[in-house]
Amino acid sequence: xxxxxxxxLGAFLLSIIGLFVFIWSSRKGLLVENPKAASVIxxxxxxxxxxxxxxxxxxxxxMQAAALEPGHPLHLADATELQDRIASDQSSxxxxxxxxAFACFWLLLGSLAGLTSSIKLHQPDxxxxxxxxxxxxxxxxxxxxVLYGWISNAALGMMLWLLPRLLRTHLHGAIWAMLGxxxxxxxxxxxxxxxxxxxxxGMEYLEIPWQIxxxxxxxxxxxxxxxxxxxxNRKVEHLYVSVWYMVAALLWISLLFLVAKLPGVHxxxxxxxxxxxxxxxxxxxWFTPVSVGAIYYFLPKIIGRPVRSYxxxxxxxxxxxxxxxxxxxxxxxxxxxxxxxxxxxxxxxxMMVIPVVAFSINMGGTLKGRMHxxxxxxxxxxxxxxxxxxxxxxxxxxxxxxxxVNQVAHFTHFTVAHAHLGAYAFVTMVLFGAIYxxxxxxxxxxxxxPKLITLHFxxxxxxxxxxxxxxxxxxxxxxxxxxxxxxxxMDSVTLTLPYLKWRTAGGSxxxxxxxxxxGHFLAMxxxxxxxxxxxxxxxxxxxxxxxxxx
Amino acid sequence: MDNEVKLVSGAMVALAVxxxxxxxxxxxxxxxIQPPPGLKPYTSAELRGRGVYIANGCxxxxxxxxxxxxxxxxxxxxxxxxxxxxxxxxxKPHLLGSMRTGPDLFNIASRxxxxxxxxGHLYQPRAYVPGSIMPSYPFLFTVKDAKEAEKEGExxxxxxxxxxxxxxQVVVPTPEAxxxxxxxxxxxxxxxxxxxxPKP
Lengths: 550, 200
Hints:
The complex is a heterodimer of chains A (about 550) and B (about 200).
Chain A: H1 3-25, H2 35-38, H3 57-67, H4 79-122, H5 135-167, H6 174-196, H7 210-232, H8 241-261, H9 268-303, H10 310-324, H11 339-351, H12 353-367, H13 378-401, H14 403-409, H15 413-443, H16 450-483, H17 489-494, H18 497-525, H19 538-548
Helix pairs in contact in A: 1-10, 1-11, 4-5, 4-6, 4-15, 4-18, 5-6, 5-7, 5-8, 5-9, 5-15, 6-7, 7-8, 8-9, 9-10, 9-12, 9-13, 9-15, 10-12, 11-13, 12-13, 13-15, 13-16, 15-16, 16-18
Chain B: H1 4-30, H2 44-55, H3 108-111, H4 115-123, E1 141-145, H5 146-151, E2 169-173, H6 175-184
């Protein structure tokens, strides 16, 4: 056997062995279901109570009525535990608000830049006089603003809010987390300025110049300090599944970023493999685990029912950890890279079916019989949509990595559509849901115009549907045309035009949704909207939250 | 799972395996590669032009990696032989690309060796390729009075009449545009490479 096959086998076997070692090590009761562990997100007596802070009292009551099952009477939740949770929320409120506010700003900027680039692809002579508006730059501004600005900030905010809740303690080192947030956002602002002026490191997903990346990395380290400090000072024995996903993801992205940005180390073809090792792991080991962790918390919490199978979530976590990290190589299929590398990535991409199916069975089981609650709860709607799209995008990714499919999809807009299915339909929708859930607790103020939440949901959902379907179809036809030697290359360009316009149409709806969302967020932060009874008084707030059962 | 040490160590092992496979192994495999005899290092003007290519994000629409004939008709389209790791020995950062909204550019200099064509095409792609969706780059050029440009000894871009500026004016490339074209005209990897060593 030659060395290529040996290394391929070696990496694969190592992953499998690692996987079993870690599943075995967390085996306590592996064959016995562990409902107690799954219930740590609830206070004593709270199971069965629905929870959606985005709803007003009356709406919450009717949702509760719809969720009631005969034979399962509601109990009163333990008041001390609820009080502890309020204390947790209060300890993290300011840093969380800071991260989410930055995230909203970058979302708006990033999606406007995205729409501009989309229009430019079918109107190539539009806004060409300024260098910073040229497609190659504004497209990268879009990517940097939404990936690092929006998703990463929102994910960090969500993490800082969830961890104290799940660990039943207050947020330790909040000031360090905020300093970290300041550094990260300074870095993002500087990076966007740099890219607009043409200063870039030039690799996809790694455009941020390394000098600026130091700021961002330092910021992440500060957030990690705060998170780890909170983790070791926890007051619960058991670490809930969301904690694993989020803590692991935070460590992963920091190391990925550090290794990929090391200046002067990578070169030539090896740099390309590192580039895609990083590029795919941003999605696989940062966005995905954070969002999956969020669904594991919010979805059961909203419907008031613990996760169906806790052991499946363990399997899901370790398979994701061991398979996802190695899938990046399929971006270099057919390229001048060692053949075993692409093969390894294809194999691991297909193995990704395991964590996705584990997740989906689990969530399906948890939701069984309570799907109808999505009619009442806007937050649940976002979470369900996101969860379903995780299933769809990850399964599509596994199929897309297969050599025969990848051959057509590679180098086309099909890949772009797939990326948006993951980063938008899955991750971003989950983050929207989380923000709608969190902000009333963070700001002690209700969402002033609940109808806008529904409007936002439909604008985003329809927008991404048009975007994804249109661009996937166009991308596939583009790929088929490109592979046909009998057709001139220009065919593959002109035939995409109608689909590129559809992308702009879908993108416009998404941008509109974001304007509604950010406007609503602003209105809430500035205390707009119908006056709520006594919401400004602290003692009354606490009373209200207790009444909700949080 | 109750143990944070297990969580952290497991996460790190998983990442280490991935890093070994996708970063370290490729490094070990390509570190001893010698540049092919036909490949010249970039000149400083070409490197500056490469900088312009990077700054304006050309890589987001143009790949630089012709593929093997059993993978696609890259060779039939005249994009050149399949590239090998040695071809990229001077590339930092790599510009392999992941999109072909436009054609592959690894051998653009052998397909289109005309400097005038490239300058004019950058100024207005649709003057040369009808239906192209490539952006025009007017900011890489200045429109000047014809007499003034002549006095300064500058060489205007020759454009098809319908796409030129007003009468009495000419389009003059900036140094960036000239460097960029120098880089594009250096993208020629048609020299022969040895086939990889036969498998034992």
